[in-house]
Amino acid sequence: MPTDGIDLRHxxxxxxxxxxxxxxxxxxxYQRTLGLELHSSDPFGDFLVxxxxxxxxxxxxxxxxxxxxxxxxxxxxxxxxxxxxxxxxVAFLVYEGMGQDALGIWTAPDGAxxxxxxxxxxxxxxxxxxxxx
Length: 133
Fold this sequence. Notes:
alpha/beta; 2,3-Dihydroxybiphenyl 1,2-Dioxygenase, domain 1; four-stranded mixed beta sheet; globular; VOC_core
């Protein structure tokens, strides 16, 4: 435990970073499709609120997303959230050989976690998980 009085566990709001090549398209996706609120904007990007946490979406015209999840949410009922997002036009990814169900949800062999993956408007890989924790 730090002895200088600074404790980032409780004294600061976490910020995750995502990148967008098309700012307007990305804001539309995160606000309209995912329901996140805009916290603030500046000439370089936007802050969105996700359950008390901030997501900094920075505009980078030449952004190339990576193959691994950039951000995700742990939800209480993954089937309900996947179904709702599908109704809003989100396409969930199905990976060959993973054994995902009809909604695109993968269940870990021990049953402790269920995960579904989808891309945002900028092709950043996002995930939903249900861990029961």
